[in-house]
Amino acid sequence: MKPNNNIDNSTSKQADHTKTMPEVEGPASVLLIAPQGTNSDAIGGCVRSSGHRCTPVGSLDAARTALSTSDFDLVLLDTTTHDDAVSFIGEARAACPWLRAIAYSRESDSEGTIEAIRVGATDYMTLPESLEDLPGRIGKVVAQGRSHRRREQKMQRLMDACETLRASKDEMSQQVDVLCSDLASAYRNIKDQMSTVEMTTEFRTLINQELDVEDMLRTTLEYILKKIGPTNGVVHLREDEGKYGIGAFVNFEWQDRNIMPSLEKLGEVLCGPMQGEDALMKFEDAQSFANHDGVDPDLFEDSEVVSFTCNRNGNCLAIVTLFRSSTTPFTDDMASMLDALRDILAEQLGRILRVYKRSTNEWPKDAEDEADWGDLAA
Predict the structure, then answer these.
(1) Cβ proximity of 105 and 79 under 8 Å
(2) Rounded to the nearest 5°, which phi and psi values hold at 322?
(3) CA atoms within 13 A on the CB side of 235
(4) Which residue ranges does the chain devote to CATH 3.30.450.40?
(5) Which CATH class is domain 11-151?
(6) CATH classification of 209-358, choosing from 3.20.20.70, 3.40.50.2000, 3.10.20.310, 3.30.450.40?
(7) Which residues pair with 325 in a beta bridge?
(8) Residue 164 contacts by C-beta under 8 Å, 6 or more apart in sequence?
(9) Is 209 helix (H, G, I), strand (E, B) or coil?
(10) Neighbouring C-beta atoms of residue 211, cutoff 10 Å
């Protein structure tokens, strides 16, 4: 008896086919595009019997609708569905790059095969002639598609992570920029404060050495001019209630003429309104001063005028007025500096006035007055 080689070979081939057939993670979702009456039932049954889901449609329009509403792993396309049915593969894959396609026809067609592969089909079959090969081909094609899909999803996750990192980096960079800006601003503020402290300490030390009012005022004007540059200036001292006289002045620009009468007239015009003013005043248009009788118009024409009071214990002890050409205007930094210096000037003026009062000799005239001297009278 001859051995049954056919059975042995068939079993061997089946074992080899099972071993090499790629595994699909779960059932594949297959969209079958084939007209009714073209063995579509047999093909669909084969797909289902191999463990996959199959959704049959009879036209390309129905296929487009199905793709827009459901997720598929594979398109199984009968090229006879439409004259230009093969082009649908490129259309479908453009929308879903991981989607795979197998084109088939009832007869072998080399030109159709080339065209299908060219537009994006992964495989081309002759059905139902090769129906027994369909499950293996589906498994192989779907495995490729799912592998591509996993790569795409992984790449998308990486891109999302990179975008998140980029956004975090941008946010961090913005926060660092804001922090650096805040630190720079804080440094500038501290530097300005230290400069102000240094300046006021220097100024206080300088004028504390002066116990003569006129000498102290001249020192003050010299120090101010050193800080703000060439400027004409005058200090009107309080002499009586509502009356002010010139205590010191600087004639920087008009050294060839006597400006005292104009400065005295300026005091009459300016000191009255200014004595109740607590803020620094800046007159950018000094033409109104130039128009007063008794004032040399050249002094104030096209000039800027800055004036401020020196107040101590609610009393205006002096009014300082500075003026110079509008081509070299007074700046905001100068205003901050003058505001810091005027308090020190007022403090020293008050101290000198107290010294003057204490220097007045008033001796006791009777025994009752002598008692007030206590032990010092002994």
Answers:
(1) yes
(2) -120, 140
(3) 23
(4) 209-358
(5) alpha beta
(6) 3.30.450.40
(7) 303
(8) none
(9) coil
(10) 14
Helix H or strand E encompassing 30: strand 29-33
Q: Are 234 and 249 in contact (CB under 8 A)?
A: yes
Residue 105 near residue 128 (C-beta atoms within 8 A): no
- Give the per-residue pLDDT at 12: 40
Which among 30, 41, 43 has a CA at the least distance from the CA of 127? Answer: 43
Beta strands at 303-312 and 281-283: parallel, antiparallel or unpaired: antiparallel
Q: Where are the alpha helices (DSSP H) in the chain?
A: 5-20, 40-49, 60-69, 87-95, 110-119, 134-208, 213-228, 260-274, 287-290, 297-300, 332-358, 367-371
**Strand order across the 74-78 sheet:** 53-57, 29-33, 74-78, 100-105, 123-126
Q: Which residue ranges does the chain devote to CATH 3.40.50.2300?
A: 11-151
- Report how far apart, in Å, the C-alpha atoms of 144 and of each of 25, 28, 101, 203, 261 are: 12, 12, 11, 86, 104
**What pLDDT does residue 275 have?**
87
Average pLDDT for runs of 10 along the chain of length 378: 40 40 73 86 91 92 91 90 87 88 88 88 90 91 87 88 88 87 83 82 88 88 91 89 88 84 87 87 78 79 88 88 89 89 90 64 47 40
Tokens 């300016």 belong to: 270
Burial of 360: CB neighbours in 10 Å, binned 0-12, 13-18, 19+ = exposed
Q: Please tell me the pTM assigned to this model.
A: 0.48
| pLDDT for residue 301 | 80
Distance CA 311, CA 25 (A): 91
| Token pair 């803020």: residue | 279
- Closest listed residue to residue 147, CA positions, set 23, 304, 299: 23
Measured CA to CA, the distance from residue 158 to residue 147 in angstroms comes to 16
294: left (phi over 0), alpha (psi -120 to 50) or beta: left
Residue 225 and residue 320 in contact, taking contact as beta carbons nearer than 8 Å: no
Q: Buried b / exposed e across 136-147, counting CB within 10 Å, b at 16+?
A: ebbbbbbbebbe
Q: How many CB atoms lie within 10 A of CB 352?
A: 17
- Measured between alpha carbons, how far is 155 from 162 in angstroms, rounded to an integer? 10
